[in-house]
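User: Here's a chain of 216 residues. Predict its fold as tokens.
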Amino acid sequence: MGKKDTEPYHYIDSIRYDILDMVPLDGKVIGSIGCGRAKTESVLISQGREVHGVDVSEEAINVAQKRITTARCVHPTERMPFDEGSLDGLILADILEHLPLAWKYLESYSKMLKPGGWIVISVPNMRYFPALYMFVIKGDWPECPLGIFDETHIQVMTHKRLSRWCDKAGFLRVKWRDCYDFRFIYRNIARIINLISLKLIRGFLVFEIQGVFRKK
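Assistant: Prediction complete.
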């Protein structure tokens, strides 16, 4: 959602097809927290959906306002940027890992959804084998502008941890999506191993932890 107050966050203005692939067909009114410039969300607008976005970046919101139904700036500590029971669906694309006490934010976000509403979540996988190699073998955790080692990450994310947070927030998992590394060799090696292992070691092979959940 943002970076240090003195350093603007690097927003990538491109469509995230991995996120769109998870968005359920139902749901007219959709919220997006940390929408950035809302390039991805603009595709949902073209489908006839109503999308409301929030972000901490005024620059990003100025662009998003031209692309989606509504877009506005919020403070990083805002836990309920939309009214209770006002949304059919919610997109959290790489947001939770930036938030202190993120599980409490998720509990608040649940209140914004109608019963049966869905939530699409994407977070970096800290158990991904290159990340483990860097941490366990090389004994380091670098600070990078983007990716798993993004210097603004403050949460260590795993499938089990995200599942526990969602369960406590009142969500049932619909499915996991396997999101592989963008690099060709890493992506295909991981895909093959994941299939051969019947996805039993998925937690070490996917670059992002991505899932669709429904409010109980």
